[in-house]
Write a structure and sequence with these properties.
The complex is a heterodimer of chains A (240) and B (243).
Chain A lengths: L1 E10 L2 E11 L4 E5 L6 H8 L7 E6 L2 E2 L7 H5 L2 E4 L11 H11 L5 H14 L15 H13 L5 E5 L7 H16 L3 E5 L3 H7 L2 E6 L2 E6 L1 H6 L4 H10 L1
Parallel strand pairs in A: 3-8, 3-9, 6-7, 7-8
Antiparallel strand pairs in A: 1-2, 1-4, 4-5, 9-10
Helix pairs in contact in A: 3-4, 3-5, 5-6
Chain B lengths: L1 H16 L4 H38 L7 H19 L2 H12 L7 H30 L2 H9 L4 H31 L11 H12 L3 H29 L6
The chains are: A alpha/beta (240), B mainly alpha (243).
C-alpha cells in the first residue's frame, strides 16, 4: 500500500532520516517506537508530505506522491492523520470540525456530513459535545474527536503521531481503546507511540527507529522477547 | 462674567443656528463616516490579501515557491514600503491632483478619491496587523487542515484567518479609530467633511471656540461609539474561547 524507497530528510546540517526503505501492506498495524530524536515522527510526517523528504520516493496506492506533479491534496484525502496535540480547529464546534473537509471537498452535502458527524460522535459517545468548541473538552475527548474527524474522510490508512503523549494518564486508555477498535475493524495503521502495551497488543509489526534508520523490525512477540539490536535491548530495558 | 456668557451664547447661535449652519456639521459627519467605513472595507480587503500572500510566501519552503507567488510577494513588499514610508497627506494630494487630475471637484469624485487613498493607506497597516495574527496561530491548525486534504487557500479561509482575525481585533480597532480621525485631512482636497464644515463656519462667522470644540466633541463621541461596537464584536468572536 505504501512503499518507501531510500527516504532521507535533512534539516539544514542535521540528517534526521537516512535512507529508509519500508513497505506498509493493507491491513497492517505498524507501530514505530524509538527514543526521542530518532526521526520516527519525521518519518511519519513524510508519509503524507507534511514534511518534504530531501530525497527518496514514497508510493501510495501505485501513485508516486513524492513526484511534484502529484496532487498531494488528492492523496491526503485517503490518509488520515492524528497529531500529538490534537489540532482541532479552535474556531469551529466539534460537529463542524468533522464536517468541514467532507463538505468543502464536495464529498458530501451538508446534510450527509452532519448525519455522518453525528454517527461518528455516537461511536465515541460524544454526541452531547456536538455543538461545543474544542476548548471546552478534555484532552482525551479532543483526541477521540480528532480521530473521528479523520475517519469522516473514509481514509485508507491512518497515521498516528504520538496520539497519547500529550494526555493525562487517565485519558490515555479511552484513546487507545478507540484505536484498538479501529484496528479490529481492519484499518491500516501506522502508529508512532511510546505505549509498549499497545505495540504488543495491537501491532502486527513493530519497528524500532534510532538515529534516523530502522534498526530492527519484527512481530511484536519476537520484538519484545528476542530483541537483537543492542540499542533496542538497551531501549527496551529502560521503557519496559 | 456676564459678557463671556453672552458671547458664548452668541457663539452657539452663530455656529449652529444662523443660516442653518448646523447642516455643515450634519453633512460633515455623514461624509466623515462614509469615507471611514468605505476606506475600512477597502483597507481590510487589501490588507487580508496582502497578509495572506506574504504569509504564504514565508511559510512555503524556498524551493517550492512558485514564480507567481514570488512576484506577488515582491509587489506586496513594494506596496507596504511605499505606503508606510510616505505621509498620508502627500498620498492624498497625489491621488487628487495627479491621478484624479482633470476630474471635476464634485462631492462624488472627492469622496471616491478619499476612499481610495485612505483604503490603500489603511490596507498597508491592516496587512501587517493581520499577518501578525496569522503568524500567531499554531502551526498545527494548518497541518490539520492540510492533512485532511484541504488546500492552502481553503485552510487559510476557514481555519487560520478567522482565528487570526479574532486575535488582532483590538489592533484593528486601533487602526479604525486612527483612520476615522485621520480622515480630517481630506480638507486639503476640499472635501466637506466634519473638519471642513467647522472651518467654513469659522470663516463665515469668525467664531472659533464653539465650532472647533464642537467637532472635537463629535469626533470623540464617534470614537467612543466605535470602541463600544468593537467591544461587542470582540465578545461575540470570543465565543469559542469560553470554557
Amino acid at each position: 500500500m505504501i512503499y518507501v524507497k531510500d527516504l532521507s530528510k535533512t534539516f539544514g546540517e542535521n540528517q534526521v532520516i537516512s535512507h529508509i526503505d519500508a513497505h506498509i501492506r493493507p491491513g497492517e498495524k505498524v507501530v514505530i517506537v524509538g527514543p526521542s530524536g530518532s526521526g520516527k515522527s519525521t518519518f511519519l510526517r513524510c508519509l503524507n508530505l507534511l514534511e518534504q523528504p530531501t530525497s527518496g520516493t514514497i508510493t501510495f496506492d501505485g501513485e508516486e506522491i513524492t513526484n511534484p506533479q502529484t496532487d498531494i491534496n488528492q492523496v491526503r484525502r485517503h490518509m488520515g492523520m492524528v497529531f500529538q496535540h490534537f489540532n482541532l480547529f479552535a474556531n469551529l464546534t466539534v460537529k463542524k470540525n468533522i464536517m468541514l473537509a467532507p463538505v468543502q471537498l464536495k464529498l458530501m452535502t451538508k446534510e450527509q456530513a452532519e448525519e455522518e458527524a453525528m454517527r461518528l460522535l455516537k461511536l465515541v459517545n460524544l454526541e452531547d459535545k456536538a455543538d461545543v468548541y474544542p476548548v471546552q473538552l478534555s484532552g482525551g475527548q479532543k483526541q477521540r474527536i480528532a480521530i473521528v474527524r479523520s475517519l469522516a474522510m473514509n481514509p485508507k490508512v491512518m497515521l498516528f503521531d504520538e496520539p497519547t503523549s500529550a494526555l493525562d494518564p487517565e485519558m490515555v486508555g479511552e484513546v487507545l481503546e478507540l484505536m484498538k477498535r479501529l484496528a479490529l475493524d481492519g484499518m491500516t495503521m501506522v502508529v508512532v507511540t511510546h505505549e509498549m502495551g499497545f505495540a504488543r497488543e495491537v501491532g502486527t509489526r513493530v519497528v524500532f527507529m534510532d538515529e534516523g534508520v530502522i534498526k530492527e523490525e519484527n512481530t511484536p512477540q519476537e520484538f519484545f522477547a528476542n530483541p537483537k539490536d543492542p540499542r533496542l535491548q538497551d531501549f527496551l530495558s529502560k521503557v519496559l | 462674567m456676564e459678557g463671556q456668557w453672552e458671547s458664548f451664547k452668541n457663539g452657539i447661535y452663530q455656529t449652529f443656528i444662523l443660516k442653518d449652519n448646523y447642516m455643515y456639521f450634519v453633512k460633515g459627519v455623514k461624509v466623515t463616516l462614509m469615507v471611514t467605513v468605505l476606506a475600512l472595507i477597502l483597507g481590510v480587503i487589501l490588507g487580508v490579501i496582502t497578509a495572506v500572500v506574504r504569509s504564504a510566501h514565508d511559510q512555503q519552503p524556498a524551493n517550492k515557491r512558485s514564480f507567481l507567488l514570488k512576484v506577488m510577494n515582491g509587489a506586496c513588499k513594494v506596496y507596504l514600503t511605499v505606503i508606510r514610508g510616505t505621509p498620508m497627506m502627500v498620498q492624498l494630494l497625489i491621488m487628487w491632483f495627479v491621478i484624479f487630475a482633470g476630474q471635476r471637484a464634485t462631492d462624488g469624485n472627492l469622496i471616491r478619491c478619499a476612499v481610495i487613498s485612505f483604503g490603500i493607506n489603511s490596507g498597508a497597516y491592516v496587512a501587517e496587523i493581520v499577518r501578525s495574527g496569522i503568524m500567531s496561530i499554531d502551526k498545527g491548525q494548518m497541518e490539520a487542515g492540510r492533512s485532511l486534504g484541504l488546500d492552502y487557500a481553503s485552510t487559510m479561509r476557514f481555519i487560520i484567518v478567522p482565528q487570526a482575525f479574532k486575535n488582532v481585533l483590538p489592533a484593528l480597532g486601533n487602526e479604525l479609530i486612527t483612520l476615522l480621525k485621520e480622515t480630517s485631512i481630506v480638507t486639503v482636497i476640499g472635501l466637506r467633511d466634519l473638519t471642513k464644515g467647522a472651518m467654513i463656519v469659522n470663516a463665515n462667522t469668525y467664531q472659533a471656540f464653539v465650532p472647533f470644540l464642537a467637532i472635537a466633541a463629535i469626533y470623540l463621541l464617534m470614537v467612543m461609539a466605535l470602541s463600544w461596537l468593537l467591544g461587542k464584536m470582540e465578545r461575540r468572536l470570543r465565543q469559542s474561547d469560553i470554557r
